[in-house]
Design a protein that fits this description.
The protein is mostly helical and 341 residues long. The protein has a single domain, classed as Up-down Bundle (Growth Hormone, Chain: A). It is built from 15 helices and no strands.
Length: 341
């Protein structure tokens, strides 16, 4: 039951990503949202995630992984309700940014709690299930969104998060041991948290703004330059800080740094593809939200199978071999069914 609780936490995050994407054309029509507003509905959530994941991780180390995860789930649920009640695009973007705050805590601490709860020989199996159920959420998002949008309004893609959050919080409270979810307290690196959060937020803001306005210094170049300078200052501070936000043992771990690069590049490519292909299917090809959602199953089913297999494969092969094979892809020409027909 503890594993189910942690899997549901990953499920609701993945569900929220794809279910909102498939609802963008409907939101655009009903709220009269400009294309830039649609992008901010997605990027605002990313902004909250990028800026506060370091802080949430640090708070989890200091206050305990379990209580901070519970607080993050509550924030995520409340902000989902605020997004569902949003009367205009600006309010919806604000709710999405706040929703990203809760998402940052969930992403930062779900695996930390899982690691606290399970012995090393059990973690590969547990992480495999966590990834697989998260993949179900990712795959179910477009389908559930399509079904909801074909019957109800766009707000239901946010209301659906609430019952999942309530069940997840209840299961964590009842099944995840308190002692297992805490770690040795260490001082909070406040300057490191501030520098990392400001730098990541500025870079994310600059990159997002650059997609819908010219590269005007005041709107794009200034945030990018300021964010870059702040992140450089963050790196320098981490070298001098007595108890840095990113422990020295982690910074010197080549496997950890390589995993971060792979995770970043893969989601960079995947997130952009998901956003634009959804608009392609519905705005240009004329597909319904349900047809778009069903089309994603062709990609999500292999994802689900591979995620579950990874836990078992990790017991026979090295993570480096598994990740290398996973990153390998034969270049091919992408053609949609709409173009072929």
């Amino acid at each position: 039951m503890a594993l189910l609780a942690l899997c549901l936490a990953g499920f609701v995050i993945q569900l929220d990503v794809t279910i909102v994407n498939v609802a963008l054309p409907t939101i655009q029509h009903q709220l009269h949202a400009a294309p830039s507003a649609l992008e901010w509905i997605i990027s605002g959530y990313t902004l909250g995630l990028a800026a506060l994941i370091p802080l949430m991780g640090a708070l989890g180390d200091r206050l305990g992984h379990r209580p901070v995860l519970l607080a993050a789930l509550v924030i995520f649920g409340l902000c989902s309700a605020a997004a569902a009640l949003a009367p205009d695009p600006a309010t919806l973007v604000g709710a999405r940014i706040a929703q990203g705050v809760g998402g940052a805590g969930i992403l930062a601490l779900t695996l930390a709690v899982l690691t606290d709860t399970y012995l090393p020989q059990q973690r590969g199996h547990a992480i495999g299930w966590w990834a697989a159920i998260g993949g179900i959420g990712f795959g179910a998002g477009p389908v559930i969104g399509g079904l909801l949008l074909s019957t109800f309004g766009w707000a239901t893609v946010f209301w659906v998060n609430l019952p999942i959050v309530v069940v997840t919080v209840a299961l964590i409270v009842l099944t995840v041991p308190r002692a297992a979810a805490t770690s040795e307290a260490r001082p909070l690196d406040v300057p490191g948290v501030v520098l990392a959060s400001v730098g990541l937020a500025a870079v994310t803001f600059g990159l997002t703004t650059a997609t819908d306005v010219p590269w005007v210094p005041a709107r794009t170049l200034v945030p990018l330059v300021v964010g870059g300078i702040v992140l450089v200052a963050f790196v320098q501070w981490q070298r001098r800080a007595g108890d840095p936000l990113i422990p020295r043992t982690v910074r010197s771990n080549a496997a950890f740094l390589g995993a971060c690069v792979i995770y970043f590049t893969s989601y960079l490519a995947f997130g952009g593809m998901l956003y634009y292909v959804t608009l392609l299917f519905q705005n240009l090809l004329g597909w319904s939200a349900l047809q778009t959602g069903l089309s994603w199953l062709l990609m999500n089913l292999p994802f689900l199978v591979a995620a579950q297999m990874a836990g078992k494969l990790s017991q026979r092969f090295t993570p480096r071999a598994i990740v290398t094979i996973g990153c390998a892809e034969v270049p091919r020409r992408f053609r949609t069914v709409g173009y072929i027909s």
